[in-house]
Amino acid sequence: MTLTELETTIPVLAASEAVGVATELSAHLAEGASERDLHRILPADEMDALSASGLLGITVPAAHGGADLPAGAVAEVFRLLAIGDPNVAQIPHSHFVYVNALRHRGTRAQQSFFFEEALAGKRFGNAQSEIGTKHVRDYRTTLRQAEEDLWVLDGEKGYSTGALFADWIPVLAHLGEDGPMHVAWVDRRADGVSVVDDWDGMGQRTTASGTVKLRHVSVHTSRITPFHLTFEGPQTYGAFAQLLHAAIDTGIARAALDEAATFVTTKSRPYPDAGVERAADDPLVVHAFGQMELEVRAAEALLNEAGLAVERADRDLTAETAGEASLAVAAARASSTRASVEVGSRLFEVAGTRSALASLNLDRHWRNARTHTLHDPAAWKVQHLGRYAVDGTLPPNHGQL
Fold first, then answer.
1. How far apart are the first and last CA of the chain?
2. Contact criterion met (CB below 8 Å) for 155 and 141
3. Mean pLDDT of the residues in the chain
4. CA 372 to CA 385: how far, in whole Å?
5. Same domain assignment for residues 255 and 342
6. What share of the chain is helix, strand, coil (3-state, %, to 5)?
7. Contact, 161 vs 229, CB < 8 A?
8. Structurally, how many domains does the chain consist of?
9. Cβ neighbourhood burial of 377 (10 Å; 0-12, 13-18, 19+)
């Protein structure tokens, strides 16, 4: 299917079709990824192509007309998109997370409406994290009741990836002053909603992960879903979200290694002591590539294993299977963090002096990896793996594992 065809129809994609479309779209994204990063050109056209591709609907349940693809297939789609441009891959991350939230806790009417929106290529953003609170799971945004079925939403969110390009913004807020956490589904164009493009990260520069300001926004009860209930029993909500983060980092690592190989075989000069005609034949360079390939393959293998673990838990959900899924994803995230940061840095070691020219923008791989991997500490992934290895302790039941 060509990109021209994608613009005229929004298909329901089976797993193999989704991978094929993602592969083609990835190649398209790669063509302008460096230029967009250099000049911070936001990927509006690229996001439209993503909407038209049908990929935004791949997790919609079959009962609602979707393909209901499993976690591993979704992770592969994200990995492929991240090879092309990890900024574009990160933007719809929350879209898939909140489609998953609707699967867990949406009413039948909410599911019917929003799943149809996803199948139509509509985009769901994110207004979750807040700046200046005690920690990442501390929130001040509130929904206060104004009338019987009407609530008023007030707050300010940071790191709101996807919101600028969204049709709907899911907002995480307390129901009442200190009540349980709920998700308010807010129209991007609603009165009182402003999305500020103030993201200035050193990497992932074109995700537009800026600020969402919410001032007396009216929200009907029919647009509110409970979030806190997701974690009252075993769940794969967190593991699925983390799996997609791991896929993005794994894609960054592969893209960095591929570009390093292209550079070394076409542009690098050999070091005289190597006694070879091509830099690519220098045994030290070849050995370094072997080490990087090993890191990337390990991340890819652990990503695949983690996807299967999430799928197993989805089929037979217990505290044990959910915990095993979280541990598998933790391993994938720790590995993909190391691979993406290391390869993004080491590519200069093998490519040589010329690779440091700012005009080549090869440092974008490291900047993207270093920025994206800061979402939550890889060290805590390893900590939970260690506790399990020592005494069989399952990881905590929250949305970050």
1. 36
2. yes
3. 96
4. 21
5. yes
6. 55, 10, 30
7. no
8. 3
9. middle
Burial of 226 (0-12, 13-18, 19+ CB in 10 A): middle
Which tokens hold the place of 305? 């294993």
pLDDT band at 400 (very low <50, low <70, confident <90, very high): confident
pLDDT in tens, 7-57: 458 999 999 999 999 999 999 999 999 999 999 999 999 999 999 999 999
- Give 185's contacts (C-beta < 8 A, 6+ positions apart): 110, 114, 168, 169, 170, 171, 219, 223, 224, 225
Does 3 have pLDDT greater than 70?
A: no
Q: How far, in whole angstroms, is CA 195 from its chain's centroid?
A: 20
Looking at the structure, tell me whether residues 347 and 309 fall in a common domain. Answer: yes
Q: Is 104 exposed, middle or buried (0-12, 13-18, 19+ CB in 10 A)?
A: middle
Segment (H or E) for 182: strand 181-187
Residues 238 and 384 in one domain: yes
What integer pLDDT is reported at residue 399 of this predicted model? 84
Cross-strand bridge partners of residue 218 = 152
Range of the domain at 193: 142-228
The helix (run of H) or strand (run of E) holding residue 36 is helix 15-39
Q: Tell me, what amino acid is at 202?
A: M
Cβ neighbours around 308 below 10 Å, total: 16
The span from the CA of 350 to the CA of 370, in Å, is 19
Closest among 106, 124, 114, 141 to 227, alpha carbons compared: 106
198 domain-assigned: yes
The C-alpha R_g of the chain, in whole angstroms, comes to 22
Strand order across the beta sheet in which 150-157 lies: 193-196, 211-220, 150-157, 142-147, 168-175, 181-187, 224-226
